[in-house]
């Protein structure tokens, strides 16, 4: 199977057209991730097909929900998921990548340099601490986060970064409902309102859910 064509076709089904430049950039990112992962543990998914489906395609699911030129923060981005994939495909966004682990942030800085990306800021900090720094609270159009924490805690780490009228997208697996119920109070207290829950099936029958919360 030609994985580039696979990614293009499946990306299109998710509403995203990938041009040649984006594919070249994603392939360079994948190669660098695999190489770096041999010395620093960044991801347990190391085969090409896994990276393309479980990382790249999964990350593409948020793109239809990102407005042109949006200021986006990815909380607990790890090796750049979903933020960096979004930025490669949508260079119009301005992106802040935040992670508590320095070794991951160093990797992100190196990838951003390798791919010559403009408008990417990499920050080594915990979300709850960075919120206290000037210029972060209520400053972003969109916060995104995948595989970082349960909804109650995650809402407290992500929603305060979002401007009124902006959104927070939590990327979750199939068993999100219990988490969402447990987080409902925290979300409401932070001015959040669940505006959409979108279920997506990735190749291999992988069920993913985007929980989209608007800050009112
Ligand atoms: N989002 C990436 C993904 O989907 O592959 C990484 C997920 S990894 C399981 C969770 C990441 O969240 C780790 O890189 C960890 O350092 C980061 N993290 C956990 N708690 C955090 C916090 N309070 N603030 C910032 N980053 C945090």
Unreliable residue runs: none
3D shape: globular
What ions, cofactors and ligands are bound?
S-adenosylmethionine
Helix/strand structural class: alpha/beta
Distance between the termini: 46 Å
Tell me the radius of gyration. 16 Å
Q: Helix proportion of residues, in percent?
A: 25-40%
Q: Major sheet: order of its strands?
A: 3-2-1-4-5-7-6
Largest sheet: 7 strands, mixed
Strand content: 25-35%
SSE topology string = HHHEHEHEHEHEHEE
Summarize model confidence as the mean pLDDT: 97
Number of helices: 8
Kindly state the number of beta strands: 7
Short description:
The chain has helices spanning 3-13, 20-36, 48-60, 83-89, 102-114, 127-130, 151-158, 177-189; strands at 71-75, 94-99, 120-124, 140-146, 162-172, 192-202, 206-215. It is an alpha/beta fold and 216 residues long.
